[in-house]
Write a structure and sequence with these properties.
64 residues, mainly alpha, elongated
Amino acid sequence: MDVGLILRVGGIGFLVSVIYQVLSKSGREEQALLVSVCGMLLVLLLLVGQLGELIAAVRGVFGL
């Protein structure tokens, strides 16, 4: 796993949490929920690529 990936996921989490708090305090709960869902989807998209590399590495090790 790359350290850059961990930092990206942490940065996205931090940014989403700040935006969520600002929107929530201003009374826009719907937009805050949408921001949190979009943040989760963005992190999942980042992890899908790494998961594909992991599966390819496991196949290579076991010769599948």
